[in-house]
Design brief:
- The strands form four sheets. A seven-stranded antiparallel β-sheet has the order 10-6-8-7-17-15-14. A six-stranded mixed β-sheet has the order 1-2-3-4-12-11, with helices on both faces. It has a two-stranded antiparallel ribbon with strand order 5-9.
- Helices cover 26% and strands 25% of the residues.
């Protein structure tokens, strides 16, 4: 597919380049992209091959704005992303029955709406290498002291926020044990900022919709904050904190998963490489076309030259470890996953539990009605998504899922 992309989006006011053909994208998502490109503050939009309809802004979009930011161009799960670690284990080291390993992971990491019974003492966690305290304990006091600067009535939920640090959540979030094509075992997980990110995002979206400059927008869900205003400063203060919370939460979870894996192989000296921890719902200030612009990636990773990233599929379809090629045409970005091809409701109406069992055959995972909407058939083909962005990333490893924990 190299050379096919990017292609311009027809009818877009600002420069909008796509790593997908228009006929591959649902009409509502195309209109959403045109609405975004029509905002007066938008300098350019870049569309990833996993693009699909979102709230306000499409998932799989990269939006560069001048002196403005739209909270829904980030999404409510602020800081959502992936972390992955390669281990010294090979698939030959694994037992035939992965059920006990899955049970240990599920005992260590709360899933769904659950939190830890008490806030974890992160300082007691070991580093992934097993030598010294976990890296995530650094700067912990300063991080939590900033909680008092957050806006809205979040002080009422601080206890919950602390207990949810290091927990998975639900939906498309997961913890996986995978093997690459050489048989090397990897651990990876996908999660975000839990309830606090959603709470903060929704509060700020509500404020943005009341501002005078947003009253004439074709879609009020695209309401923006303008640079130099107290509303923008408040949003960015809360967003930077939530992004850090999400990254720290992933790091905490990975240390818990590593400990669970170690406990599953008594007497075996397992080593773990340095973690790859990347956001795919976030804001950054980046230099584009000679100007410092506010870039939002909603369902997209940064793919600067040499940047390592993770692009997962759905439960059962594996993932890719990639290295960015630094393509400026995409604003140095790549897709964040396979991307949904049907809504959760449509998936539940289309597929049965028998379909779920067949599509996840050979994988240690839940196969019940609670995860039917996450069935692989509800997602786009991951290999095709990777092929469409051959000019954005190079493949480091193809991971095959062996075990998957879902909320």
């Amino acid at each position: 597919m190299t050379g096919q992309f990017p292609v311009p989006l027809s009818g877009a006011k600002a420069s909008t380049l796509m790593w997908a053909h228009e006929y591959e994208v649902e009409p509502a998502a195309l209109q959403q992209l045109r609405n975004i490109a029509a905002l007066p503050w938008v300098e350019g939009v870049r569309v990833m091959p996993d693009v699909h309809l979102g709230k306000g802004a499409t998932v799989g979009s990269v939006i560069a704005m001048r002196d403005a930011v739209s909270p829904n161009a980030v999404g409510v799960d602020i800081g959502c992303g992936m972390v992955g670690v390669r281990t010294s284990l090979t698939d030959d080291d694994l037992p035939d029955d992965l059920g006990p390993i899955r049970a240990r992971i599920e005992k260590a990491v709360p899933v769904g709406f659950n939190g830890h019974p008490e806030a974890l003492d992160v300082r007691r966690l070991r580093s992934i290498s097993g030598r010294g305290p976990a890296e995530v304990s650094k700067g912990l006091d300063a991080f939590w002291n900033r909680f008092a600067t957050l806006h809205g009535k979040v002080s009422d939920i601080e206890g919950r926020v602390r207990r949810q640090l290091g927990t998975l959540g639900s939906g498309n979030h997961f913890i996986e044990l995978c093997a690459d094509q050489s048989g090397q075992v990897w651990l990876q997980l996908h999660s975000g900022s839990r309830n606090i990110g959603k709470t903060l995002a929704e509060q700020h979206v509500a404020v943005a919709k009341t501002l005078e400059h947003n009253q004439g927008l074709v879609d009020r869900d695209l309401a923006v904050f303008l640079a130099g205003t107290p509303q923008m400063d408040a949003y960015l203060n809360d967003l930077w904190w939530a992004q850090e919370y999400a990254a720290r939460s992933r790091a905490v979870m990975m240390t818990l998963v590593v400990d669970a894996v170690r406990a599953s192989f008594p007497g075996v000296d397992i080593t773990f490489d340095e973690a790859i921890n990347v956001h795919h719902n976030y804001v950054a200030v980046e230099h584009i076309d000679g100007a410092d612009l506010i870039v939002t990636r909603k369902g997209a990773i940064r793919a600067g030259a040499g940047d390592l990233g993770l692009i997962p599929g759905s439960m059962g379809t594996g993932s890719y470890i990639v290295r960015g090629l630094g393509n400026p045409d995409s604003f140095w970005s790549a897709s964040h996953g396979a991307g949904r091809r049907m809504s959760r409701g449509a998936a539940k109406r289309t597929f049965t539990l028998e379909d779920l069992a067949a599509q996840t055959a050979g994988i240690e995972c839940r196969k019940d009605a609670g995860v039917l909407d996450e069935i692989p058939g509800a997602y786009k083909d991951l290999d095709s998504v990777i092929a469409a962005q051959a000019d954005l990333v190079e493949v480091v490893a193809r991971l095959n899922t062996l075990l998957c924990v879902k909320g």
